[in-house]
Amino acid sequence: MTRVPKQPTVAVARKRRTPAPPEETFLGMPAFRHGAKNALANTQQRRNLRHATGTIRAKRAAVVGEVADWEGLRRAGEDVKNDVLAHLDSYLVQFEEQFTKAGGTVHWASDADEANRIVTDLVRATGADEVVKVKSMATQEIDLNEALEDAGIAAWETDLAELIVQLGHDRPSHILVPAIHRNRSEVREIFLEEMGRYGTAAPGDISDSPPELAGAARIHLREKFLRAKVAISGANFAVAETGTLVVVESEGNGRMCLTLPETLISVVGIEKILPSVADLEIFLQLLPRSSTGERMNPYTSMWTGGGSGDGPHDVHVVLIDNGRTNALGRLHGRSALRCIRCSACLNICPVYERVGGHAYGSVYPGPIGAVLTPQLRGITSDIDASLPYASSLCGACFEVCPVRIDIPELLVQLRHEVVEKKSHARVPSANQAIFAGASWMMADARRLTAAQKLASAASRILPKSGHLGPLPWPMSKWSNARDLPNPPAESFRDWWKREHEGGRP
């Protein structure tokens, strides 16, 4: 699953090489049904997920219950984001004007390759061979760390959970808590084995208590914060009215990245725009309650351009599309762009709780990933086509979404598109062949009657166990997870004729 980690000497470690990224990117992963089957076999991960998501759900419910009109707040957030999506072009231009006026530089990237090229060139221009990073879904989406590594630039994750994932040569499995699939004992082992290869080692007698683990991470990262000349961030929001970028976080690592380096590069999806500073009042209530179960985030950082004194003086923002305008052009799909990456839908989802994030084969896992990823990437692969089926359609995700994205409705729409696409394939699938045969049979009453009589006759010679055993291919794909009852000895039509018409079947 992962590239063999490097074994650097002390001299090589001083060159500050980044931990090797996973060999297999999200795009190379199997379809959801295969990933889910493998994940279900990992009992330790299932215990970790059940404990973590249950804890977050309980915290969220408590703080949401304190808001007098939570539903009104949700609708306000929905209205603001709908307005943004309806006028995104003008808000983006306004943001560019204001950000530039404040001394920053705006770059536009149509896809991941262009965004990676822009960021790499900006870092190279400073002469730096390393960067510190604030947790960012957008940079994960475009595989920025891997692109920087290929260019000889070490990218250090500074969020604690992201650090765990990076040192473990792993992939994130959650939007908010990327290492949610790891428990404290596993984190301790990762720190002991890996930290010393890339900086200050963890103490040899470290326990698995959270304070000690956090303390080891703090010491390990401090030297990187103090020497880094370049930082890379994402943004939770970008305010068009003032050209302001906003990052909320819980550990203070973001504040260190946003204030210490000389150059700051922010990679931001074009849908992160808000019209005005006043709109932040809504989202700074919705986001922390829905994500971490807190009334407000411990650290909320805002910056508008650069400065000549303390803090970054060379400030850039890379606005990326990477499939977002494709989703924006879809009448039923654009609502997914309202997402503020809170992860509430993951924490409530019974499917995610059992299989975790890796099974989704996307940087955006869970219910929102199942509707957002196929629209960003297009239904061009087996995994994209499988994601709309990664749900029980229970509707819990819509109930907790702070911006009221009707994820179940979007899933149904995407399932329809998957089926339509398959229906135009040159060679019909086994599923299509079966339904075509059923359609032919049910289109004529005589054929249906003959089939019913054949089934009734078969029931007399079948075992009396109540259900059929495994069926041969291609029906095995359906019957291997379901009990197929024996056909009835008498059809409804025959019963009706005997009971109500006084005749013999």
From TrEMBL:
Alphabetized GO MF terms: 4 iron, 4 sulfur cluster binding; metal ion binding
Domain LUD: 94-320
Domain 4Fe-4S ferredoxin-type stretches: 336-405
Stored Gene3D superfamilies: Alpha-helical ferredoxin, NagB/RpiA/CoA transferase-like
Keyword Zinc attributed: no
Domain of life per record: Bacteria
Keyword Metal-binding: yes
Keywords: 4Fe-4S, Electron transport, Iron, Iron-sulfur, Metal-binding, Repeat, Transport
Pfam families per UniProt: Fer4_8, LUD_dom, LutB_C
Bias-annotated ranges (Basic and acidic residues): 491-505
GO BP terms: lactate metabolic process
InterPro entries: 4Fe4S_Fe-S-bd, 4Fe4S_Fe_S_CS, FTHF_cligase-like_sf, Helical_ferredxn, LUD_dom, LutB/LldF, LutB_C, NagB/RpiA_transferase-like
Occurrences of domain Lactate utilization protein B C-terminal (ranges): 416-499
Region (Disordered): 1-23, 479-505
NCBIfam families: LutB/LldF family L-lactate oxidation iron-sulfur protein
Protein name: Putative iron-sulfur oxidoreductase
Organism in which the protein naturally occurs: Nostocoides australiense Ben110
The organism's taxonomic lineage, starting at the top: Bacteria, Bacillati, Actinomycetota, Actinomycetes, Micrococcales
